[in-house]
């Protein structure tokens, strides 16, 4: 982090000026950050020991979980969550300077699937039936538009990307709902709580819980009561496909407590006694980033 003596290398979903870059920069400062083209690339870089940490998007307030991160983190990775940052997301439509006078003639809009979805209503009314092209990140879309000045294309992304890739801002704040935030997580091979001084933070533990093979009625109720009678506050529960067959799920459960707390230890023991498989992805601090200010 910014105030540590050494500079860790940190993979983030790039290229430069992605929202993930903004989040990584906020936590670690600029030094040591390395862009990777995809979320799996970021995760694999940590697993292979090429970098100490990876910063990837986990969940968006409008669109829900980022499937790519969920898939690579929860299915077979040995990684832990070391910190979380919730970042405000403001989406803008940008075109190459050469196309600034021809915005009405745009033939395709490019961005990350989450960003396209966050602007669905805007796109529906402003660019009805214009093809939407998915890219690996919002910044990848902005870079593509900058590299193809003669194409009638637009990108959706943040203002930093417009500046970085020299694009013209055609329409600002085009996300459909005002409260647009994304949670980014810092991942590493170690259980560690990264402390970012000067910011208020709350503690959270992320668990992956699998039901016993012999699924019984009321099992989910029993799992929830493990937490409720201990007064452990859950901030999220999500079911995801186990990928072993239709109807087979696991649960991602976020608890607002540290796993070292005696109540959490008791909860893990009770889950085991219920024949559930519960894996902790670690306890970590969650931070909130204030909106970007542009001069
Ligand atoms: O970091 C980026 O720029 C991304 O394109 C990723 C991502 C996401 O996966 O949710 C990050 C934040 C926004 O919600 C839109 C896209």
From TrEMBL:
Transmembrane segments: none annotated. Pfam families: PDT. The keyword Heme does not apply. This is Prephenate dehydratase. Gene3D superfamilies: 3.30.70.260, Periplasmic binding protein-like II (3.40.190.10). It comes from the Bacteria. InterPro entries: ACT-like_dom_sf, ACT_dom, Chor_mutase/pphenate_deHydtase, Preph_deHydtase, Preph_deHydtase_CS. Its EC number is 4.2.1.51. It catalyses: prephenate + H(+) = 3-phenylpyruvate + CO2 + H2O. Signal peptide: none annotated. One of its GO terms (biological process) is L-phenylalanine biosynthetic process. The keyword Lyase applies. The lineage of its organism: Bacteria, Bacillati, Bacillota, Bacilli, Bacillales.
